[in-house]
Each structure stands twice: as C-alpha cells, then as structure tokens.
Amino acid sequence: MYISLTGLKPKGFFAYLRFWLLAIPAFRQAQTAEGNLHCDVKKVHEYQCTITAWESRELMLTYLRSGAHLKAMKAFKQIATGPTYGYESESIPTWAEAYALITEKGKMH
Predict the structure, then answer these.
(1) DSSP class of residue 66?
(2) pLDDT at 50
(3) By 3-state DSSP, what share of the chain in percent is helix, strand and coil, each rounded to 5?
(4) Per-residue DSSP letters for 79-95?
(5) Residue 59 pLDDT
(6) For residue range 3-40, what is the model confidence (pLDDT) as tens digits?
(7) Pairing mode, if any, of strands 80-81 and 2-10?
(8) How far apart are CA 51 and CA 42, in angstroms?
(9) Residue 40 confidence (pLDDT)
(10) Are 103 and 14 contacting, i.e. CB atoms less than 8 angstroms apart?
(11) Annotated domain spans of the chain
C-alpha cells in the first residue's frame, strides 16, 4: 500500500482560516476517494498532519489531482508551509512514526 504523510503549518491568522476552509473539503474527499484505505488527521506540535493509506500510488495521485484537493493545492503557497512524504509500506505508521518520517525525510514546501 502507499502511505502519504503531510505536516502543514498555516502562515498566519487569515491563512489559518483559509487553510481550514480548503482542508476540510479535501479531507472529506480523501475519505471517500477510490483506493483510500485509511485517513486520519491530528495536530502534532505546530503542524496539522495527515496520514492516508492507499491501495496504490496511482489512486492517491488521482485523488491529489482532482476536486477539493486540487483547489487546496493551488492555494497552498499562500496559506501554508510544511513537509510531505510518501512511501510504500505493509503497515500504517503510528503518529509518532509518521511525524518522525516527515521531519526526517519529508520534502518541505
């Protein structure tokens, strides 16, 4: 399965409001997207983090490039910063494992 991890930090008060206006529909889209096996969100330190597990990387990319998530990605540079990391795995990481992975191996945006 393909694991996708994000840790995003809004860039201020107004960015925080816009972040949530975009993040909630994108998360709901992920929950019902084809190929989604697991979807969770949690604040870890200063980051709003997500863990999603997918049947395949291709199905994750289909979600990533459509609907509410695409709209959120187009606004990303104005509203947030933070790392993302994706990888193949046999298991879904714990929150501690996920945070360690995005801080050690994640690509900053």
Answers:
(1) S
(2) 97
(3) 50, 35, 20
(4) HEE-EEEEEE-SSPPPH
(5) 98
(6) 999 999 999 999 999 999 999 999 999 999 999 999 99
(7) antiparallel
(8) 9
(9) 97
(10) no
(11) 2-108
Tokens of 2: 């393909």
CB 68 within 8 A of CB 22: yes
- The tens digit of pLDDT for each residue in 52-92 reads 999 999 999 999 999 999 999 999 999 999 999 999 999 99
Q: Enter the CATH code of domain 2-108.
A: 3.30.70.100
Contact 41, 48 (CB under 8 A): yes
Per-residue tokens: 98 = 């996920």
Question: To which residue do tokens 């979807």 refer?
Answer: 39
Instruction: Answer for the pair 15, 80: CB distance below 8 angstroms, yes or no.
Output: yes
Q: Answer whether 2's CB lies under 8 Å from 86's CB.
A: yes
Structure tokens at 36: 């989604």
Amino acid in the structure at residue 36: N
